């Protein structure tokens, strides 16, 4: 009936208007909250009941440490964060930044703004931890603003969380540090961008028959793990989707090569997804050199071994992504303890306590080595969440122990001892819940190995790319990051990537 249709139309209009209003209200509220943090409880040496407030020092501002900070009740401790990087970096979108798919500022969040939103005051030092003394319970830190000796400070701690991450490994292959770029931090992404854009412009000044032009336009990525694959995919996208419009002839001469020592790339993924990714790379004209181990690097050439043959590959830009190695501060901590005898990272127990300093040090994320826990953001994030709940329980234990000291009679001691034991038994081992793995493989396609209950499900293609985008949007640290990343994707689809340096 026409009257019925009219009614339906009216309700649809009202609900659409309602949704827009609710959406606008939600966005305004989120923006207001992010801009205007609530007042914080100040730090103090003692609590209102006279018990001492312990000092918790957190090293690092990455996935593990920031997840801890966001989930921790910071009113329970005097919290001190030490990190040379004054921001959190959303690493999953870092491979999109050198070619300008995502702006660098969109994936960082200042430590100060994260710390300011915590319920209790947090002290932040933009400094590097040089050494930890687990016996004296001190951390030696050096402020970044000054390289002088007097910029070194000793911090006392009651509890310490080591979340310093890892550094790129080169396996001691000669010439890598001097000639290659890594893709781990913001300055790395900036360096790669400058090298790529400069090489393109430099090559454009040379004649097409000049072999130097060919070398400059050969971009080599070493390491077929997710970092290398995602970056190679982004680079090829830039060439196919943007450079081909502005420099059509030259864009055809560009060559992206991915070198991997093992028979396949992306070895952490299901076999079907590996095949899908390798097929797509071939279609995209990314040259895949598997079973090829790089042995030496000079400023213009890499030497690689494939079976019995040795090949020289000239390159213009070399990006090195062959995994992680412990940082200096982790190595120095390991050298202080006999129990720390692994070269892969700090050894911890199933409660993330550092072996050899179980009563006062926890270690989380990429700086650790524990069988079954891989160096991923997912693991570090869950470890940070777990540790926040452990530290809440630890506070209770400390309070009961303090009460015991205040009332040293048998009845009170027994009462609080029972309470301590109850809380201690409540501190369960860390249990990692694997949600799956995602990777962007170029041409607006992604692969996903998803965990649903006990089973794993595989998905690949354009729909998976949309899922990849929404998953990463949801994982962004702040509403501001989410908005900026979404705007970057829109900007690229309207105007393409910016190729200025
Ligand atoms: P980090 O996040 O590296 O943080 C370490 C922190 O310690 C930094 O703030 C650093 O400045 C600080 N620090 C360093 N030295 C010192 C010192 N001496 N004293 C004090 N602080 C120090 N994982 C996923 O699960 N999914 C992904 O999609 C994904 N994508 C990635 C893409 C790239 C390009 C890279 C490089 C990694 C990716 N990862 C991904 C892995 C993930 O980023 C790491 O596993 C994660 O960052 C580990 O967290 P973390 O807190 O241990 O270390
Ligand atoms: P990786 O350790 O995952 O892969 C490094 C690759 O380099 C390996 O396949 C190795 O065989 C190869 N390699 C080592 N030496 C070589 C040589 N001399 N020549 C040629 N190839 C060589 O390292 P990556 O990609 O840096 O990742 C580090 C961590 O971050 C991993 O745990 C990874 O899972 C995680 N990560 C996860 C992402 C995701 O889930 N999308 C994205 C990026 C990183």
TrEMBL record:
This is NADH:ubiquinone reductase (non-electrogenic). Residues 55-384 form the FAD/NAD(P)-binding domain. GO terms for cellular component: mitochondrion. Its EC number is 1.6.5.9. Its main location: mitochondrion. Pfam families: NDH2_C (PF22366), Pyr_redox_2 (PF07992). InterPro entries: FAD/NAD-bd_sf, FAD/NAD-binding_dom, NDH-2, NDH2-like_C. Gene3D superfamilies: 3.50.50.100. It is an enzyme of class 1 (oxidoreductase). It comes from Lachancea meyersii CBS 8951. It catalyses: a quinone + NADH + H(+) = a quinol + NAD(+); a ubiquinone + NADH + H(+) = a ubiquinol + NAD(+).
């Amino acid at each position: 009936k026409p009257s019925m249709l009219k009614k339906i139309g009216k309700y649809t209009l009202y609900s659409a208007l309602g949704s827009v209003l609710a959406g606008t209200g939600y966005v305004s509220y989120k923006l207001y909250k992010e801009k205007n943090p609530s007042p914080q409880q100040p730090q103090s040496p003692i609590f209102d009941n006279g018990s001492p407030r312990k000092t918790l020092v957190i090293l690092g501002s990455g996935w593990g440490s920031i997840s801890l900070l966001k989930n921790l009740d910071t009113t329970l401790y005097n919290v001190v964060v030490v990190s040379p990087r004054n921001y959190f970096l959303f690493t999953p979108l870092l491979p999109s930044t050198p070619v300008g798919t995502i702006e660098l500022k969109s994936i960082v969040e200042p430590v100060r703004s994260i710390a300011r939103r915590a319920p209790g005051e947090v002290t932040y030092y933009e400094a590097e931890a040089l050494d930890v003394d687990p016996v004296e319970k001190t951390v030696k830190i050096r402020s970044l603003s000054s390289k002088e000796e007097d910029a070194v400070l000793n911090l006392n701690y009651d509890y310490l969380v080591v979340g310093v991450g890892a550094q790129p490994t080169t396996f001691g292959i000669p010439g890598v540090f001097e000639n290659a770029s890594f893709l781990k931090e913001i300055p790395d992404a900036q360096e790669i961008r400058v090298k790529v854009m400069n090489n393109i412009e430099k090559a454009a000044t040379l004649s097409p028959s000049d072999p130097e032009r060919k070398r400059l336009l050969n971009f080599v990525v070493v390491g077929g793990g997710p970092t290398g694959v995602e970056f190679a995919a982004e680079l090829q996208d830039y060439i196919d989707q943007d450079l081909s419009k502005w420099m059509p002839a030259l864009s055809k001469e560009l060559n992206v090569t991915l070198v991997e020592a093992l028979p396949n790339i992306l070895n952490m993924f299901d076999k079907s997804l590996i095949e899908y990714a390798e097929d797509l790379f071939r279609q995209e004209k990314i040259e895949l050199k598997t079973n090829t181990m790089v042995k030496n690097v000079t400023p213009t050439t890499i030497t690689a071994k494939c079976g019995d043959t040795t090949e020289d590959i000239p390159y213009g830009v070399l990006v090195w992504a062959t995994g992680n190695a412990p940082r200096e501060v982790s190595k120095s901590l390991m050298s202080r303890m006999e129990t720390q005898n692994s070269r892969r990272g700090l050894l911890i127990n199933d409660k993330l306590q550092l072996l050899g300093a179980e009563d006062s040090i926890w270690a989380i994320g990429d700086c650790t080595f524990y069988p079954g826990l891989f160096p991923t953001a997912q693991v570090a994030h869950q470890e940070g969440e777990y540790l926040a709940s452990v530290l809440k329980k630890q506070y209770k234990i400390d309070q009961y122990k303090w009460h015991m000291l205040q009332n040293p009679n048998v009845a009170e001691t027994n009462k609080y001892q029972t309470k301590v034991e109850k809380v201690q038994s409540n501190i369960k081992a860390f249990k990692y819940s694997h949600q799956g793995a995602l990777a962007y493989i170029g041409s607006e396609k992604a692969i996903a190995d998803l965990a649903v209950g006990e089973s794993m499900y595989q998905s690949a293609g354009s729909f998976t790319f949309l899922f990849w985008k929404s998953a990463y949007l949801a994982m962004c640290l702040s509403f501001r990051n989410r908005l900026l990343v979404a705007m970057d994707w829109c900007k690229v689809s309207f105007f393409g990537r910016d190729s200025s340096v």
